[in-house]
Design a protein that fits this description.
Low-confidence stretches: none
Helix content: 55-70%
Structural class: mainly alpha
Mean pLDDT: 81
Largest sheet: none
Distance between the termini: 51 Å
Strand content: under 5%
Radius of gyration: 16 Å
Number of helices: 5
Oligomer: single chain
Order of helices and strands: HHHHH
Number of domains: 1
Length: 122
């Protein structure tokens, strides 16, 4: 599969995972990974900011597709297919932009800063 097909598939898989997260037939472990994937995908703040050379873009190129692939493998095929049909055209006008999707990323950064500060001022 070439890069364009993968990018297009990623754009359709994220809304599918979003709907599967709410589906009662999705297993608990898949819901946990779906929640992580959706929060990461929709967060307006990257875990590694894009202005950091190479690493800033690698998280988008490697982490997000890895989260999506893992989550889809954990969800039963019939649930994925049902939610793929429901998700067609769901985010035609763009993905939702909510500030609270950034909360986990901000908390991770605060924890890292606190740990670094604690290590420096032992």
């Amino acid at each position: 599969m070439n890069l364009r097909k993968r990018a297009k598939q990623l754009k359709t898989d994220i809304p599918t995972i979003f709907l599967a997260l709410k589906d009662k037939d999705t297993p608990i472990i898949a819901k946990i990974f779906a929640g992580i994937t959706i929060v990461y995908a929709l967060s307006p703040i990257d875990l590694v900011p894009d202005f950091i050379p190479i690493l800033g873009y690698l998280d988008d190129v490697i982490l997000l597709p890895a989260f999506v692939a893992l989550t889809i493998r954990l969800i039963p095929e019939e649930v994925i297919e049902r939610n793929r049909k429901k998700s067609e055209g769901l985010w035609e006008n763009g993905k939702p932009k909510k500030w609270y999707y950034a909360v986990p990323t901000v908390l991770i950064w605060i924890l890292l800063i606190w740990l670094i500060g604690k290590a420096i001022w032992l």
